[in-house]
Amino acid sequence: MAAENTEHAARKDILRIATAGSVDDGKSTLIGRLLYDSKAVFEDQYEAVERASVGGDYVNLALLTDGLRAEREQGITIDVAYRYFATPRRTFIMADTPGHVQYTRNMVTGASTADLAIVLVDARKGMLEQSRRHAFLASLLRVPHLVVAVNKMDLVDWSEATYEAIRDEFTSFAAKLNVPDLTVIPISALHGDNVVTRSTNSPWYDGPSLLHHLEHVHVASDRNLVDTRFPVQYVIRPQSDDYHDYRGYAGTVASGVFRPGDEVQVLPSGLTTTIAAIDGPRGPVDEAFAPMSVTIRLTDDLDVSRGDLICRPANAPHVTQDLDAMVSWMSDEPLRPGQRIAVKHTTRSVRAVVKELQYRLDVNTLHRHTDADGLGLNDIGRVRLRTTQPLFVDDYARNRVTGRFILIDEATNATVGAGMLTPTS
Amino acid sequence: MTTPDYRLSQLETLEAESIHMIREVVAELERPVLLFSGGKDSIVMLELARKAFAPARIPFPVMHVDTGLNFPDVLEFRDRRVAELGVHLIVASVPEAIARGTVREEPNGSRNRIQTPVLLDAVEKHGFTALFGGARRDEDKARAKERVFSFRDEFGQWDPKNQRPELWDLYNGRIHLGESIRVFPLSNWTELDIWQYIAVENIAIPPLYLAQERDVVERQGMLYAVNEFITPREGEQVRRETVRYRTVGDANLTAAVLSTATTVDDVIAEISVTRMTERGATRGDDKVSDAAMEDRKKEGYF
């Protein structure tokens, strides 16, 4: 990273990336390459990798991403690892996730916060079942931007025809998945072609290098600035002499824009009032939008507590106890109809019962198994839940914040599932 | 700092995310405590906690696991900051635990490992259910894999193979009696982010983070300033150098780096071009093995 001043850093934004792939696809090598070429790798780290790279003609950059002892011992990636690198244009947070089907839950976890997903394809093998699954999971989690990195192009002699065949096949598959933005880049992670700079090996390719694309992809329009949603997280009451009457509703704006003077409605009471003031980390602000953490003060003294939601009267979420959702199941103990479970949705926690499992989805073929009697570890299916209390929800496709929830086992307290709300059928 | 296209800068984004995490803990867990050493990361974490609840006071105490090997500068800073904020400080003392016989001094003089039982005893004594720690994921490869809400069993142990999935910003703070959650609000911050935030927000830090002339000795390629815990050994040459501290750990094990940075902006300029990791450059205790941090964390370390 070049030297940069603080002013400049204050203007940069963050791009969150998820990568999925296995060691065989060259994923670790690609990440090592991005970290190394963007100078996010330090000398002491590089020396350790150099020492460990026994044999071979080049330093094994894949070792830069090794994490836990068990992973090094078994030569596999088990869990999501978070990596950080930056260029003068942008800061990147990369969720590095394993690619095999038995780690689907880790891929879902990594993709949950991502603005962009990178799916790796081995140019020699073309689009495999695994590549389809990775693209599907990215679309299920509504990651707005998808990059297919066609890797190991050096091993197919930089064949334009090979690249085009993979690109065309992926493009038609992505069209079925509602992927809004797809970019297909031919690379060699091992040698660095088209990773940071354009390669002379692919004169037929006129698109950007991978890093150039990551630096320039436009993410500002991905956010929902229309639907005003503010889940109340915590009530601030100083009870001090200076702030005797202060009562503020702290939380993170889920979507939309809030301004002092706005008429708002509080759910579930349905009462309306106006915003008196909004306090940000540095004092009062004129407007608040996602993902700002602020404290809203209301003109009227209403009974508002954690789990309530502030919105505009003319643009309110659905208030419902019936949830239809795609659920990614993450526990060894299967999900079954009739089961009781805890739901955490925004700042609201409720109990629920599984009313129906409509189908289990084969994540490789996208076939819907309507005869399924449960969801096992790493399965994905469409589920209907009935909650003990109403939730304030939107479809996940429209609102990634109010359209999502997690499922918690009430006996073990483990997080056992992730849900994305779909329109009620 | 906001722009018309409703975009937050990277520091504003990180700040908002951290405040969300801190509030979530207070909303869901009964007895949180924030681990505050007076080091730069915990200073930023405490500042974020202040912002999360302003204008109310921070609704939990802070705790320092005092190894008895602290830089006096840092202890002084710790006490002053705590007094300014009106928060209650709990000190869990390693020397007292050694005197009581609950832990034993390690032969190499490092109290890094024996902090853990002292921490766990204090957690049990006060009944804390959530501990805020200032660890960052860019610090170490074991930390790169840890959750923001990191579940610990009744012995404070971390099980890296059995972590709760953590999706979106929906944190799971549910625990049974005796269990606890370690929370890392600075998970996604890098060393440079911390310094830039200190600069932008004009946050006070202990003076040893800035360059001063000090008497130093060189050990295994690292520069240690002579102080009450470090005395020159036979054959070691004491020399005068201008150095600053990049991390603040125990005074007997934390090395300084050559520097001319006398302001926070100077520090940022130096860090932007440095080619060594923070811990690699300054911590004698992390050089033990490739998995030193992972092993300590499994035992209940921060």
Report the uncertain regions of chain A. Answer: 1-5
| Unreliable residue runs of chain B | none
Radius of gyration of chain A: 24 Å
Please tell me what the overall shape of chain A is. Answer: globular
Helix percentage of chain A? 10-25%
Distance between the termini of chain A: 51 Å
Cα Rg of chain B: 19 Å
Structure summary, number of beta strands of chain B: 10
Q: Residue-averaged pLDDT of chain B, rounded?
A: 88
Outline the biggest β-sheet of chain A: 8 strands, antiparallel
Can you walk me through this structure?
With 425 residues, chain A is an alpha+beta fold. Chain A is built from 8 helices and 23 strands. Chain A has helices spanning 6-11, 27-37, 43-52, 69-74, 104-112, 129-140, 160-176, 210-216, and strands at residues 13-21, 81-86, 90-98, 116-122, 145-151, 181-186, 229-231, 234-236, 248-252, 257-258, 263-267, 272-280, 283-284, 288-289, 293-298, 309-311, 318-329, 340-345, 348-361, 368-369, 380-393, 404-408, 415-421. In chain A, helix 7 (160-176) links the parallel strand 5 (145-151) and strand 6. Chain B is 32% helix and 15% strand. Chain B has helices at residues 10-28, 40-53, 72-85, 94-100, 115-126, 191-200, 264-273, 278-282, 292-298; strands at 32-35, 62-66, 89-93, 130-132, 149-152, 180-183, 212-219, 222-225, 239-244, 257-258. In chain B, strands 3-2-1-4-6-5 form a 6-stranded mixed sheet. In chain B, helix 1 packs across helix 2 (40-53). In chain B, 54% of the residues are buried. Chains A and B meet through helix 1, helix 3, helix 4, strand 2 and helix 5 of A and helix 1, helix 2, helix 6 and helix 7 of B.
